[in-house]
Structures are given as structure tokens and as C-alpha cells.
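User: C-alpha cells for both sequences below?

Assistant:
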Amino acid sequence: MSETMRAAEGAARRILHCDMDCFYAAVHMRDDPSLAGKPVVIGGSAESRGVIAAASYEARRFGIHSAMPSVRARRLCPQAVFIAPDFRRYRRESEKIFAIYRELTPLVETLSLDEAYLDLTGRLGPWGSATAIAREIRRRVRSERGLTVSVGAGPNRLVAKIASDFDKPDGLTVVPPGKVQAFLDPLPVRRLHGVGPATEKALAEMGIAAVADLRAVPLPALLERFGRHGRTLHEFARGVDDRPVEPHRERKSLSTETTYAADLRSLPEIEREVERLAHELDAMLVRHDLAACTLTLKLRYADFTTVTRSRTLALPVADGGAVAACARELLGKTEAERQPVRLLGVGGSNLVSGALAQLPLFA
């Protein structure tokens, strides 16, 4: 299929990306009016080496964000109100919100408790437009649940996702098919799906900062530099995204890793980094309401030799302390104490619903 035909086909699609605003914190702030206007932080105690799962907009102004160690968040904002996560409450609330979505279309792809794609293609019904349905979603979430949701509407997932972040909180950004290029061109390339820090740096070395710059690069040059990913970059820079909304998609794994500018040489330093990555993975599991049955530690030594060590647990875990303990155990099965380390990563696989991680508590 030619690019022109694919773009035309994509223009007929109507996709929404719905993203709840500071969901975990917002639920507590709704239920406890005394928290209004205060910097609210959801996460473990700063005294127990906890990690931040979410922060209100008031807390974010101090630089607090998810996956940050609680002790650092406390230093940034001593007056912050710390609240222990209540995932049962969040799951119940999420189910009620997603029920609203599914009344409008059965094609709802769950990304996490607070984020979803909706495909409205051919399902506009009496509303007549995706914009009208987006307004109805925002109205109902506000009136029925007392919360706010930011919505992006566009001809595909790529555009809808970027649009939902444009006017947070409680925003609605609509990008008609004919305005996609004008919408994307001035954006930094980092806003495109699949452009992480490493790709962003590589593009910057090519003199590419904005999507318009990327669009000007011939496809052969991108393929030479990025391989198959170059074609994706070429298409996304033109607003072409054929990925479907998949209501029954299952996430198979989650992971986080860091490549260091200077090799790590001391074991205490490596252990601290492993613990940090473990808590980052924990925050990711929490955001997606998942628990991991298998944990994997990845190392790359200074000579570029890469090794992995894995352990499958008797019970699924979604707790930062348990993930960190397992990661430290796996670290002991490597040569980290004797060889400089240039990359560390911690991952979880064989994922199950986060609710299953709570079962042992009630056995």
C-alpha cells in the first residue's frame, strides 16, 4: 500500500486517548476535601526507602515525580502529604471509568488503570463526531466520578496520544486529519512514540531536533542509521500510524535499564543502582496494575559482554522491596564485584494482574 493510500485510510479512523489526571492522587483528594490545594504524594514512606507511585500537580511543581525515592521527594517538599497507595480503591475506580468508555465503544485498549485508547471508527452513532464523544466522556467522568480526564482525538494512536498531553489537566485537544502535519512539525522529536533518550541523542547528532527536521531526512538515510526503526521514524514524522486499538492486548514484560557514561566499579555503587532500577520497575508494575512472576537482572561489562540472571518466584511480586531483594540476590550470581559495569537493567516477565500479588496477604 502506498504512503498516500495509507494516510488516506488512516484519515478515516477516529481514535481517542484518554488519560486520567494525577489519578491516584486525585482519588484521595476527591474523597478527602482537606487535601485540596496541597502537595499530595502517593508512595512509600520516606523513612522506609519507599518509592513514589504518583504525585499531585501541586507536588510536581517541586520536582516530585513517579519512580522517585520517597526520601528525595521529602527533601524536595517537606510539607508534602504522603499517602500509602490503595490499589484496591484505584482498581474499583478504574473499572467504573472504563465502564463509561465501553458504553461508547467496545474497542477500548487498556494501557494502565488510568489510561486507554478508544477506537470510534464507524461508531460515532448519534454523537456524529469523535469530538462530541470526547466531550461526553469528560462530562460524565467529572459528573459521575468527580474526577477529570484529558482526552486527545486524532486519526491514529500516535496523534491521539500526543494530543492528550497537550492541555493537561482536564483538557481536550482535537487534531483533524488535515491538520496532522501542522500539529506534529514544530514538536520536539522526543514526543514521537519510540523516540527515547538514545534515539533522541542520535537524531540530535544528525542535526534533527523537531519533527519537521526529521521529516526532511530521506528514508534511506534513516534506514542506514537506525535499521528497521528508521522506517517507523519516517512514517511517524508524517503522522502515519497503522497500529490498531487492541482491546485484548496483553503486556508480556516490563523492564528498565541504564547505560552509564562512566563504568561502575565498586560493588556498593552497583548495588545502589540495582536497587534504584528495582524501584523503577516496581513503579511501572504499579502503574500497569501488574505483578511479575519472573525477575531478570541484566548486566553489560566494560568489555561489552552481556549477561542475564533470572529467577521465577513462587508468588508474583509488585513490591519495590521484594523486587530489590531479588535483584540483589541475582547480582550476587554475576562478576559485578570483579568487572566494571557499563549497563544495568531490571525486568519483570510472566506478568499477572496486580491483584494476585495481594493474595498471600489474605491466605
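Moving on to the next sequence.
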Amino acid sequence: MDALILLRLLRLASPALPTGAFAYSQGLEWAVEAGLVRDAATAADWLAGLLRESMAGLDLPALARMHAAWTAGDAEAALRESRELLAWRDNDEARREDRQVGASLARILADDAADALAANARRLLAAEAAMTYACAFALAGAGWGCGRRDTLLAFGWTVAEGQTMAAVKLVPLGQTAGQRILAATTATVAAAVETALTRIAEPPCANAPGRALAQLRHAGQRVRLFRS
């Protein structure tokens, strides 16, 4: 891999990228309060379920299609895929998270030196009903010359790392336990990406009712550290 592309991928997957994703737990905060996630092992199980049952059949195949669309210069196809992905979100908390984090990344891309990338980012920002984090991530990957599989791996890793960091704060866990979760999740991320690449032409599929319920109940928690 070209060194510049590798560095761009690392930037895209870095938790230091100011998208605000750190403010969301995707229902994990309620799962901890309910006792469903209570240690490193149950946190790893929660994350593995998210990757296998939701990401592999829904988010990652959609990201692959959007990456192909942006690469081909077909903005309409990318926005259409993004609108469908947003429609699959189970609740308003998830939709608001997707829009906010996606818009933050798109604004960063709009300031990019590459004219075509910046123009597409502004087009995405103008299409509020089509705004998702995956669409902005796909645009970045395509615009920066990152391959499809590598972009999917980077996206899967950002989700795994974000959920792990949330678990470290919420359970709470030590940093060493957090590293154990990430070590256990590495192969799951890779497997989810490979599954997603076989499902690009298939209908979307997600089966994570536990997370959907957790996100809904999170909205009613009296004390919250996270926005979702």
C-alpha cells in the first residue's frame, strides 16, 4: 500500500478525528445500567454481536456500495444508498447520531485541498436527508484513494474502538481490559468485512434487537454520560 494512502487510512480510523463519535455509546450505556454488560467478557460479546448481526449485513455492505459509487463519480447513487441506510435505523437517537457524526466528517472533507472531494462533501452536507457517517466515510476513502476492503476495515475498526472506549468508561474497565476486548475483536472485524463483501448485491440484513431496545431505553435514563 502506498504510504500516503496508509497514512490517510490511519487518519480516517483515528479517534482523534473530530467527528464527535466519542459522545455516543449506541445503547451500551443502558446495557451497562441493566447489567447486560458488566465486565470485559460481556462487553466483547456485545461488540461481537453488533459486528456480526448488524454491521456485516447492513452498514458494511452499504459502505462498500457507497465507496463504489463515489469512486465512479456517481453521487446520486451514493446518496440513494445513504438514504436507505438511514431508513434502516431503529430509532431517532440512532438517526441523529448518524447525521451529526457524518456531518462532522463531511465538513472536514469540505475543507480538503482536493477540489472533487470537497465538492462532493459539500453536496453531501446539502443533502441532510441522506447524511450518514458511512456515506461520509466512503467518500473519504474513495476520495483519498483507499481501496474498498481497506476502507471497510477502517470503518469496522472505528466502531470497535469507539464501543470499547465507551465500555472502559461505563463498566468501568481498565485500559488493559480494553486492549483485551480489542484483541478479541480484531478477527471479528475482519470476518465482518469479508462477509460484507459477499453481500454487496444482496438485500440489507440486520438482526440486533437488543441494541435497538437499548438505544430506545437510553433516551429515558435519568443520568447519562453519552448522547445515545
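User: Anything stand out in the second?

Assistant: The chain is about 70% helix and 0% strand.
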